[in-house]
């Protein structure tokens, strides 16, 4: 039988990770880190911005991780996309509430990993301010990991982050008029 090694870093770092770009795989990358962290018995909080209006599998999926991952989905869908009936002011109020919640969760020290899903595009869409993201980063306990997802990450956030990945679209099924599929797209 192969012996399994469990690595432990000599020095722990609380990382700032940004997942951005126009391809598919940003939110799911963050969810993958939540799954991975749960395996290490770490506690994870996920706050989704501009969602909350449409069911996604991760809402119940994380409940299967024995309470290690809390997920709060806020908002009323992507601001400005076709078919979304809510005003910018309404989206902004929702995003402002989500920022407040994020601050509470980050400073509660209850979590090892905090995921702020779609926060990058919330800034791009002017639902929140750059200073608010910088404030959250500043408020982060040293060893807490902070993961920020969404298209169009701000250059200053990219500059501050430790790990940044850009997911680029090579192909997406929607271009062939294939509808979003459960388990893959939501
Ligand atoms: P996922 O949640 O699947 O990881 P994502 O977070 O990278 O996707 P978002 O920009 O948040 O992508 O878009 C969310 C939804 O839109 C997903 O259902 C995803 O499949 C779909 N999507 C992602 N990229 C594109 C694209 N380039 N064009 C159209 N739809 C996309
Ligand atoms: Mg996403």
State the main characteristics.
186 residues; binds adenosine-5'-triphosphate; six-stranded parallel beta sheet; alpha/beta; 16% strand; Rossmann fold; 6 strands
- Helical content (DSSP H or I, runs of 4+): 25-40%
Mean of the pLDDT scores? 97
Strand content: 15-25%
Profile the largest sheet: 6 strands, parallel
What compounds are bound to the protein?
adenosine-5'-triphosphate, magnesium ion
Q: What oligomeric assembly is this protein in?
A: single chain
Number of structural units classed as domains:
1
| Total E-strand runs | 6
Would you kindly provide a written description of the structure presented here, covering whatever features stand out?
There is one protein chain. The protein has 186 residues and is an alpha/beta fold. The protein has a single domain (16-167), classed as P-loop containing nucleotide triphosphate hydrolases (Rossmann fold), CATH 3.40.50. 32% of the residues lie in helices and 16% in strands. It contains six helices and six strands. It has helices at 26-39, 58-61, 88-107, 119-124, 130-139, 155-160, and strands at residues 16-20, 44-48, 69-73, 113-117, 145-149, 163-166. It has a six-stranded parallel β-sheet, sandwiched between helices. Helix 2 links the parallel strand 2 (44-48) and strand 3. Helix 3 packs parallel to helix 5 (130-139). The longest helix is centred in the middle third of the chain and has 20 residues, at 88-107. The radius of gyration is 17 Å and the shape is globular. The termini are far apart. The structure holds adenosine-5'-triphosphate (ATP) and magnesium ion.
């Amino acid at each position: 039988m192969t012996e399994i090694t469990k690595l432990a870093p000599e020095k722990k770092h609380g990382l700032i990770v940004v997942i951005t770009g126009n391809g598919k795989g940003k939110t799911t990358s963050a969810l993958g880190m939540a799954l991975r962290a749960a395996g290490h018995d770490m506690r994870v909080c996920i706050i989704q911005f501009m969602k909350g209006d449409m069911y996604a599998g991760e809402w119940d999926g994380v409940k299967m991780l024995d309470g290690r991952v809390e997920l709060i989905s806020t908002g009323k869908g992507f601001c400005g996309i076709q078919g979304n009936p809510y005003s910018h002011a309404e989206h902004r109020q929702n995003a402002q509430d989500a920022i407040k919640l994020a601050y509470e969760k980050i400073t509660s020290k209850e979590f090892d990993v905090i995921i702020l899903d779609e926060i990058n595009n919330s800034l791009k869409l002017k639902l929140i301010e750059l200073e608010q993201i910088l404030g959250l980063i500043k408020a982060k306990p040293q060893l807490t990991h902070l993961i920020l997802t969404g298209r169009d990450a701000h250059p200053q956030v990219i500059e501050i982050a430790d790990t940044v990945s850009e997911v680029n679209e090579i192909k997406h099924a929607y271009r062939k008029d294939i509808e979003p599929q459960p388990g893959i797209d939501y």
